[in-house]
Amino acid sequence: MRLLCALLLLPTLACSDPEPAPPLLWRIQAQGGVPPSYLLGTMHIGVSAQDDLPRSVWDAFDGAARLVEEAEIRFIDQQEYLKLASLTGGQLDSLLPEDVWLDLVALLSDVSLTRLHALRPWAASNLVFNKLVPEVEGMDLTFLNATVPTGKTRAFLELWQDQVNALNQIPLEDDVDALVELVREREAYTRRLEELIDLYLEGDGEGLYRAAPAAGAIPEPGTALFDTFIRKRTQRWLPTLETELQSGGVFVAVGFGHVLGPEGLVQLLGQRGFTVTRVE
What we know:
Elements: E1 25-29, E2 37-42, H1 49-52, H2 55-63, E3 66-69, H3 78-84, H4 92-95, H5 98-107, H6 113-118, H7 121-132, H8 139-150, E4 153-156, H9 160-167, H10 172-184, H11 186-201, H12 205-211, H13 224-247, E5 250-255, H14 256-259, H15 265-271, E6 275-278
Parallel strand pairs: 2-5, 3-4, 3-5
Antiparallel strand pairs: 1-2, 1-6
Helix pairs in contact: 7-10, 11-12
């Protein structure tokens, strides 16, 4: 998800640069005098970690000895992914209204029809979302690549297969309905994504969390999908995260949906005795 319209840096009489917005970054301090750690809520698509984040994020990253992310995404087996992301029976076009299928084919003209026919609706939706915003290297991948020249160690909270398997738990009817809505209402979704990226770049965590479900970034809190994709996964990560943070010197970068809100990591880590402070 990336802002589609660039902000114009018009000259002012004072010739001063605007103050950078505070990032969705928290300082995490464990007991015992260990070095501080940092928790960053990320946007999985559309925001460039290299170009869009303030220096304070990179200072925190540079000072950390270890990176913790959701999953290792650099070495995904494409054949295994396609197998997991494919329908077990039938073809995608048979599940969609004709107008939606034709629009989908046009939108994803760079995807072979053979592959498109086989995709599960959520996998097709992911491809559509990537078409709605300009392509940039994902924040997660940027941080992973940045560990290579620095020698930082890495840890992951789940397997990429776990994420795909969670998506495959979506009831097929709901999955189809979501894809139909996305294709038919793609202009509205584009506007919502633009607004969401604005909120992210402005550091407006509360506004971001409220607007995210309508933009398709996270499920609506309180629903079964939210329970599957956000709450349960966040809870599964906690034991590993607590161990990592107790050692200190860790930079944690996970999707903002796991960080914000009443069941997000900011609240949960505070309840577990860590001192959690927003980096301004």
